[in-house]
Description:
The chain has 213 residues and is mostly beta strands. The protein has helices spanning 30-38, 72-81, and strands at residues 10-15, 18-23, 60-63, 66-67, 84-85, 90-98, 109-110, 119-124, 133-136, 152-153, 159-163, 170-174, 179-182, 190-191, 203-211. The chain has one domain (10-211): Jelly Rolls (Sandwich). The protein has two helices and 15 strands. The two termini are 31 Å apart.
Amino acid sequence: MWELNENLKVKSYELHGSAIYTVDNIYKYPHKIGRYLFNRNDIPLWKNNDTSQSRNGKDFDDRRYYEPKKISIHAYLEQLCGQKLTDKSLITNQTRFLQNQYNQKYKDHYWWAHTDSGYNGIVYFNHDSINGTNLYKNCPLPSNDEHVDPWTPKKDMELLHYLKPRFNRLVLFDGKRFLHGMAINNDRYHCKRFVNAPWNTYRCNQVFFLCGN
């Protein structure tokens, strides 16, 4: 199930001296993988025990699946960017938003931005070209907490680059160098209430975290 497609074509370009990679149709069986990763009832809320003030599970539904499992894409990523994975596991992000006044902030706010330890890999699992990943110009990290108040006014951030999503597309960028976060540009993943729903009503990604020497 985890086989990569043959003869993958890597597109790369530089942004401020740093290489960004895009690989379309990365997996041979993406629909099987999507069902395996996201079509389950046991995916917990992400960081839900961090604070009693968390809005996770109230205003938005941010979940992460984690399973220790080494797969073929891990070696491919390390070879592509020259860094080592910090965790060779299955890791996902799965997010949707309550259709309320608070989440209307997407119109003039950006979702919580952050940096990581090195290169980040993302495989998109939605048929969506609108809600990809934003990279921002160097600026102070947002002072707001990821799950207490994740929306940051656009006037306080400067968008540097947009990574366009596509089903079964891998993007790989330096998450340590570039402040980055989800791009929420419409209400596609908004819902009237949190009930069991098809997994593709969530914004669904598989993610990878790497680190330089």
